[in-house]
Amino acid sequence: MRVLLVVSAALALSACSIIYKLPTRQGNVIEQKQVDQLKLGMTHEQVHYLMGTPIAASAFQPNRWDYVGYYKSPRGDVTQRVVSLYFEGDVLARMEGAEPATGQKAIDSPDVGTILKQEKKNANEDSRAASDRQSGVVVTPPGSQP
Asked: Which of 44, 71, 73, 114 suits a disulfide with 77, CB 3.0-4.6 Å?
């Protein structure tokens, strides 16, 4: 009897299709606030300190650094971004992909600070909406007749 109960419980649990998929992040983490701090004329060391190690630095083109970012949310939405930096000598001369794609939301490439601010804002709005019940008191402006 126990065996039948264990087998039926295992069969019932195996039929559940509740699967949580972890978000996938590969390559460089490219945050817009870091890209905004890039300035033409910065040295290799300054760019490396700000952006980190490039994922694709070619031995044939040492003056080009590519930062490739890939993010797949648990719902399956995929966001990719490539930022290419070109140097002349030891100085940053040109940037490609520094502007975010049109229509890109902050949640597409989230950073922890942005997510925490948004959650706090949502919680404040929810509590404000719950407390905006009418109190039954009518306030008339001065100079007007009731």
From this structure: 73
